Amino acid sequence: MLRAYTKVFKTVEIDSTFYRYPTKGMAMGWAKYSPEGFIYTAKLPKVITHEKKLKLSQNVEEDLSRFIELMEPLILGGKLGCILIQLPPKLDYRPKEMEDFFKILPTQVRFAIEFRHLSWMRPETWALLEKYKVAYTIVDEPLLPPEVHVTTDIAYFRWHGRGTRLWYDYQYSDEELEPWIPKMKQASEKAEKVFGYFNNHYRGNAVKNCFQVLKMLNAQTSQQKTAHEKINDFFKNQGRTTESKLEAFAEPKEMSLNELLRFFVAVGRLERAQRIADEELSIINQTDERIEATLKEYHIAIDVEGKKILHDCADWDKILSTKKLCKHIGKLLLSMNREQATAILSKMYAELGSWQFEHYTSEPT
Fold first, then answer.
1. Which of 88, 119, 167, 190 has the largest count of CB atoms under 10 Å?
2. How many C-beta atoms lie closer than 10 Å to residue 228's C-beta?
3. Closest Cα to residue 104, out of 149, 58, 158?
């Protein structure tokens, strides 16, 4: 997928680094298997931003150093544009703590910060960012106004979408994107480099909207024009009920069970799933339409026909909004008939936008 992506786009924002540290080999692969001139940005791990909330008293300096060291292949290769510091929504205006954190940022890497609490929208914030050369992230989202503030020589745009239950389950119209063109031009007059990323990734919306903006900016390459035509045809023929990925209009292929498991279950969780003893799992009901099981004290229900998964472990509650699977569901799938597990995951992959991942409370409905 990376090979297909880099043929069309010049940059990507790495989201996986928010959930877990990359391995050195992974970062080396990003550097090795992308063309010269391709630029990555990456989200700072949530252990720093969301769990420790940037507090130096909780050893975030050590966490930051570890992350920077792992990202060295991209830094040394000139392929890391900047690191995004995305704050949690409840983290309000705390200038002293923020300045203390800015003081430990390494100078060999550029940083952008995304606020998600309205209290940060004030002149003192812009002055603080300018002092430490940290870029303000210009956003389109329900929590903050779409204001343009350029606080360093780079500008960073993020379009999250305007959905209701999920912000990023959204497709922008031309009319909604047009007002952003003068904003981007305004930013480019003050900044040497402008980064822009769409986070409304369900159903291929991010790719489609990105092409629309490039067209409005008169910045599409011939290859991007061709890809834009392909994805327009895809949406026209398939509609928005089917989950679309970049591979769908690059090199479509049927995915194996192992590939599907790797997509839905993080490597660490999958390894832990494989270590769960078979006797700990009890399958109560198993048909083509519905599977119900218990694992230790936990419950799992997969309603294939209703496109719904219910579970009740603590890890599931943390990740269900990302539509990924925990080790318990991974164990269930590994224990099932291979053909049935593949069929379920293939259906989920193809129609992910319409699947519901929910907490199991009592008897599933």
1. 167
2. 19
3. 58
**Cα 333 to Cα 341: distance, rounded to the nearest angstrom:** 6
Residue 130 CA to residue 122 CA, distance in Å, equals 13
Contact call for residues 50 and 21 (beta carbons, < 8 A):
no
Decide: 14 and 86 in contact? Cβ < 8 Å: no
Q: Kindly indicate the confidence band of residue 22, based on its pLDDT and cuts at 50, 70 and 90.
A: very high
- 8-state DSSP, 353: G
The set of residues, in sequence order, having a beta carbon less than 8 Å from that of 170 and lying 6+ positions away, is 161, 162, 163, 200, 202, 205
Question: pLDDT by residue (tens digit) across 26-81?
Answer: 999 999 999 999 999 999 999 999 999 999 999 999 999 999 999 999 999 999 99
Q: Indicate the DSSP class of residue 239.
A: T
Tokens of 142: 């329900």
Determine the 3-state secondary structure of 214 from DSSP. helix
Domains of the chain: 2-249 (3.20.20.410), 257-359 (no CATH)
Of 264, 208, 198, nearest to 239 (Cα)?
Answer: 208
Other CB atoms within a 10 A radius of the CB of residue 336 amount to 19
pTM: 0.67
- Amino acid residing at 351: E
360 and 311 in contact (C-beta within 8 Å)?
yes
Report the alpha-carbon distance of residue 43 to residue 37 in Å, rounded.
20
Beta-carbon-side half-sphere exposure of residue 25 (alpha carbons within 13 Å) = 0
Radius of gyration of the chain (CA): 22
Residue 273 tokens read as 């799933």
Report the run of H or E that residue 303 belongs to, with start and end: strand 298-303
Q: Indicate the angle between helix axes 95-102 and 123-131, nearest 10 degrees.
A: 10
Bridging pattern class, strands 298-303 and 290-295: antiparallel
Q: For strands 134-140 and 193-198, give the pairing.
A: unpaired
